[in-house]
# Entry
Amino acid sequence: TVPFLNFDEMPAALYYRARNGHSELAKRVMLDRFCGKQQQVAATLGPKDAPRLAALLKGSDWSLAVRARGEQPRYAVHTAVGAAEGSLPLECCRCMRVFEWPLQLEFAVVVVQGEGEEARWIEQEDTWRVDDAVLPLRERFEDELLLALPELPRCNDAACASHAANWKSSDPAPGSHGE
# Structure
């Protein structure tokens, strides 16, 4: 776990605030300020903030608590760490019912500038590439969330799991033939 990622420990002055009083993740931040000055952000991310993620989910009544912090340069590059918590409405690939999938994500990435640095680091570390010293923070965060989604979401419903255990390869797949 990343120790700073506790909401209670983060100074309110470092939050990005929306006009309505809820915190919102900035779309773009200057790399030298975010990483170089070790800025921290805590926000609520919802469907309007993550449209690519929202398009894959089965409902619009969701939000995630997200946190991120830029870190001082390491080996002449910047780093960022982040986390997200909440639940997302996914469709079970077995029974086709919508269920709440719990998400607890933590990540650390090397923030690189340009193709050359990316090519040098991508084999060793997870990277976020920036151009023009501007980090598209919300977009990169959404990328991490998309990567965290299960390829074949499955609910924990006992009847669904029992049906899947008894399902024979010759039976039609759930959801086919009008089911």
About this structure: The first helix runs from residue 31 to 34. The chain has five helices and seven strands. Strands lie at 29-30, 40-45, 64-74, 77-91, 98-113, 127-130, 134-135.
